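Ticket #4471: structure output looks truncated?

Reporter: J.K.
Steps to reproduce: submitted the chain below (459 residues) through the standard prediction queue, then opened the result file.
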Amino acid sequence: MAPDAKAAGAGGVTAPTRTLIVGSGAREHALAWKLAAEPGMNEVVVAPGSAAIGTEPRVRCLPSIDPLDAEAVVAAARAISAELVVVGPEMPLAAGVVDALRNAGIRTFGPTQAAARLETSKAFCHEVAEAAGVRMARARVFSEGEEAAARGYVAELGAEGGGVVLKQDGLAAGKGVTVYDDTGLALDHVRSHLAGRGPGPALVVEERLAGHEASVIAICDGREAVALPASRDHKRLCDGDLGPNTGGMGAYSPLPDLPDDAVAGVIDTVHRPILAELARRGTPFLGFLYAGLILTGDGPVLLECNARLGDPEAQVLLPRLAVPLGPVLAAAARRDLAASVGAWPAGLPVLPGASVGIVLASDGYPATPKRGLPIEGIESAEAEGALVFHGGSIGRPGGGYGTNGGRVLTVVGRGADLARARDVAERAADLISWDGLQRRHDIAASLPPAPAVAIGAGR
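Returned output as attached by the reporter:
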């Protein structure tokens, strides 16, 4: 194919030849790895990216670009004549970077600041879901001056014996949710969640629901949606789901208890009603709509929405895709996803097999991670057949990488089934080391059984 030729995607949608990805984490590394290998893609540019991301074929990075500086991102997109911009992390979305790109006439995949409130405000997510008829856990929202009322609701839910969940309203890098079995401990922590937050929503108090969590992410164009396969993220730091919440310590896909062929039902009963409600409000959602679910005995219940691809979910989902992603994102960015949805009513086609990702974190994470520690064994892990996506590493003088964040690497194994994919990931992760490395050893080790009947969304 000629260097400037364009490949047609689903429904004849033209693939972008130059794409700008905004971000620098493992999610953006996985996106760059996927898009750069697709037919018709001449170059993927990542701003700011990282030393490791820049080693991928047909990928270069712009390390001087601040992803929160909308003017700088717009200038970068113009400088490279980007045909598509994909905004990865939540902070640029919350800062309105997508708004600036669209106002400049640049085709962009990602939600506006107003639509991204689904993630930036848990109270807003509950409001939209209720209006859309999407079932969530029972909850109430409290502001700084409502400590007594918040404590009363915690006690009310606690008296039912199922536990309580406290959620900070606003972005918290995946660490703003605390689940309590002990109602007394939850009561003790109410004040700290409310103090100093000022006017407006500060704390969401929810009932605790029983079941396994699952993530279903859809590509949306403001009206329509096409699903990625389901995945499962593990938030707790330690084996057995113990320890503090993190941004995610590992993930796997597919799920025995929410198989790929059941995901379309979730899109119909969760994503599409939310898209319709946001469109009705004049804030259509165009981007990755992430539904965090809990699979209860009465069906899936929505726990939260994110306005982006998950991390580490992206690292296990993108290697499973059997079709080019760029044309689908381009179709959504031009608000013309209908052709793709018609071609794939059950979701994007996937390759046979499974993928398992293990996150390797730095000492001190999730509080204050240690930086600058030399990393050994990445090449050996890749020689085992694993993918290694960099989230918090930095290039070292003379070669190699050092730690430069909390979640440093995601090691992804692929195999014919989850057991074999997990084996590849475990063996590869064992080959990587640095002082104080933290990781889990139980990702995809204990799997829920498949549902006895087809899963439908609980109402």
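Triage note (M.O.): checked the attachment and the full token line is present. The chain is about 30% helix and 25% strand.
Status: closed, working as intended.
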